[in-house]
Amino acid sequence: MEYGDKPFLIASAPNGARKTQVDLPNIPITPAEVAKTALECKAAGASMMHLHVRDDEQKHSLDVGRYREMLAEVRSSVGDDMLLQVTTEAVGIYTAQQQMEMIRSLVPEAVSIAVREIAPDDADLNALKSFFEFMREAKIAPQLILYGPEDVARFNQLVEIGVLPGDRFPVLFVLGRYTAGQVSQPSDLLPFIGSSPYVSEWMLCAFGAYENACILTGAGLGGHARIGFENNHLKVDGSPASNNADLIAQAHDGSILMGRPIATGEQARQIMQPMW
Predict the structure, then answer these.
(1) Could you write out the DSSP letters of every residue in 159-196?
(2) Fewest 10 Å CB contacts: which of 34, 76, 243, 256?
(3) Mean pLDDT of successive 10-residue segments in the chain (276 residues)?
(4) What's the pLDDT at 2?
(5) 129 contacts: CB under 8 Å, gap ≥ 6
(6) By C-alpha distance, which of 40, 10, 39 is closest to 216?
């Protein structure tokens, strides 16, 4: 596919696992708030939602019932033309086994999974292989999260030894999560490019005020974007975004100027499909 014909997938990450409305008053937390945000982000150019749920104290949760409520509310708001992705993020609370149990119970259409959390050095590789085989049979689209070179190496190994049963997979490159002050810059993306032969499509997210600069660098290099208050709440002029859609709109306009058409929900589902 020629560069100018390749759709640019914009995913909204509206809240993440850590920030609360004490930290950021306009961050969406409840299913109703996230559903409203999803509709705004869809109108601004997003074709995918990356969803977290919280407990009654706004703390991170992997509760299946809360996820079902969130997914139903968001789907009702946006219709079918948007990919809805959940997360297994551990946040130091959940074990790999608990993460896998949540996905087996929920059976979502898509899920992001941090390689370092699901496959630590002491992981039960047989259990992990069985889990990914379940995902393949259930047609759940995985996105493997890679924070650095050690995660890329582990991801490569999991494919090579057959724990990840397939040829190539969509991944997310995370910029700035473990840098001083959680500030990323576009050059942080470069070590990731070409680092694995097992990547089907790549997306990036970027912490800090240079989120949009990183995102557009990724767009120029053929990748896709996850954008939102999970990583950053400032617009390119340094002013606070009024909502997540403000950040989506910046990336939408920039990618159009770079010659990348915006992906639809149907195209998002195709982009996020692994080559099992």
Answers:
(1) HHTTSS-SSBEEEEEEESTTSGGG---GGGGGGGTTS-
(2) 76
(3) 88 95 95 98 98 96 98 98 97 95 98 97 96 98 97 98 97 85 89 97 96 96 97 96 98 94 97 97
(4) 77
(5) 162, 163, 165
(6) 10
Residue 182: the pLDDT is: 76
Structure tokens at 256: 């159009």
Task: Give pLDDT, residue 47.
Answer: 98
Distance CA 187, CA 170 (A): 21
Task: Read off the amino acid at residue 203.
Answer: M
- Res 187: pLDDT: 95
CA distances from 139 to 43, 122, 142, 220, 237 (A): 28, 27, 9, 30, 41
pTM reported for the whole predicted model: 0.95
211 and 185 Cβ atoms separated by less than 8 Å: no
42-59 burial, b at 16+ Cβ within 10 Å, e below that, comes to bebbbbbbbbbbbeeebe
Stated as kind and residue range, the H or E segment containing 12 is strand 10-12
Which CATH code is given to the segment(s) 3-271? 3.20.20.70
Q: Where are the domains of the chain?
A: 3-271
Tell the burial category of 153 from Cβ atoms under 10 Å away from its Cβ (0-12, 13-18, 19+): middle
pLDDT score for 3: 78
Containing 205, the helix (H) or strand (E) segment is strand 199-206
**Sign of the CA dihedral running 19, 23, 28, 30:** positive
Q: What confidence score (pLDDT) does residue 192 get?
A: 97
How far apart are the C-alpha atoms of 232 and 227, rounded to whole Å?
Answer: 8
Q: List beta partners, residue 54.
A: 60
